[in-house]
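Lab meeting, action items carried over

1. Structure of the two-component assembly. Owner: GW. Status: complete.
Input record:
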Amino acid sequence: MKVMMLILESPEDFDNRGGGPAAKAYWDQWKAYSQAVGDKVVGGNVLDRAETALTLRVRDGRRDVQDGPFADSKEALGGYMVFDVSSMDEALELAASCPAAANGAVELRPIVPMDAV
Amino acid sequence: MSSERSGPAAAARAVELAARDSYGRLVAWLTSRCGDIAMAEDAMADALERALLTWPEQGIPARPETWLLTTARRRVIDGARRKETRTRAVDRLRVEAEEAVNTPFRRALPDRRLELMVLCAHPDIGVGVRTPLILQTVLGLDAKRIGEAFLVAPATMGQRLVRAKRQIRDMGLSLELPEPSDLGERLPHVLEAIYAAYGTGWDGAMDEGARGLSEEALWLARLVVHALPEEPEALGLLALISFAESRRAARRTPGGLFIPLDEQDTALWDHDLMLEGEKAVWIAAKYTNPGRFQIEASIQSVHAHRARSGRTDWPAIHRMYATLTRFYPSIGATIGYAASFGSLDRVHDGLAVLDGLSAEKVARHQPYWAVRAHLLRRAGDVAAADIALERAIGLSEDPAVRAWLLASRT
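Predicted assembly:
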């Protein structure tokens, strides 16, 4: 099964990306993590800061464009990975050592296979 | 004064206190009577709920445990009557309920918790669900807490527990303690299950900070030794857990940074727990019937000795790991054996031991990569050490361990 891991990062971790001494540790732990999950990962991307998001709604033919993410919360979507695993248990096991789990949160969602729709 | 003895807070506390020691006792006893763990647990949950409702108003009963027992028993009788099943068990229960009204609690209720644990660790019950079953039936932990410790979704864990209890009921497995000759075969399953509870929350680096269910495991290990004071391996397990628990306060700096075992300040080790471990090791040794847990406890005992002597007897530890891997081989034992070569400056021998493990089994095993990185670096193979360290970092769940490994890079 394919499972998407939504990576919700804390504001501090977003700040850590930018530079300074914390940046190296931040990126190194992610590099180590993605290598450790290895071929269980079949896709994924890092997303830019939440402030760069644009949210669009169309209601009654009117556009509503907002600066910022859809959900306004302390933790923001910082990236995602797609796992190819045999069960949600296995996905949880892979997620447990994800650096964001300790500072933010990760959400696991089974991907609906399109041939089943 | 009166508010202390009667308010809702006091009642809640009385319920909690009565429940902590009696929960498993009551569930075990009820299960022995109705043969259905789930029914026994439901009855207990109901009795506890009633206690929370009625004790604040009517005051805490003089004998809270007896009150809980009587109430829970009534629930089992009602439940069984509704289902019109197991009538003989219910009749017996009713007779006993009447007899027990004026009997002191402990006598009215023989401790059947060991039997309950043996039942939960029955060979026909899946290995993975034995520990969760014990934690739930003996300690009353809920599926969420257990699921978190074992990294399983709460709903999934709940389903597994329900299925296992149904299996026990449908197979008609009895709560009777097996014959002593069979107990020897069944007890290791119980000890393994308790050790698995201790193992939850462990993450790498040989002597890491077990949060998880370590206190519960210590409690269960004590319970088994209390029931079987002459069982060497039960004593070994208790010693092993006591020693490991004794170092809890020394595993982190006040700021939360990880401290490996050799660098821990022994003044922070809990001396009462070390003494408990030492005593158990000595009593077990009297029976000259060694086993896996006794050997592992002896290794921890050597580490504990540093608190007095200021040094660690690495050759002794190495010999014990050699014995452990020879008679009770496991990945953990092999990694410990390999690491012990490192302590004797025989890093290449240690690496050869690691190379003997199946690559597939260690691919996601954090301690393997941490020890491998350590040995490779000491062997001077910096490039290979960095690769292994990277893997150990990527597999670390504990942020303190991850940070420590990140900082250890050259």
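2. GW to write a short summary for the group page. Key points so far: The mean pLDDT of chain A is 93. Chain A has one domain: 2-116.
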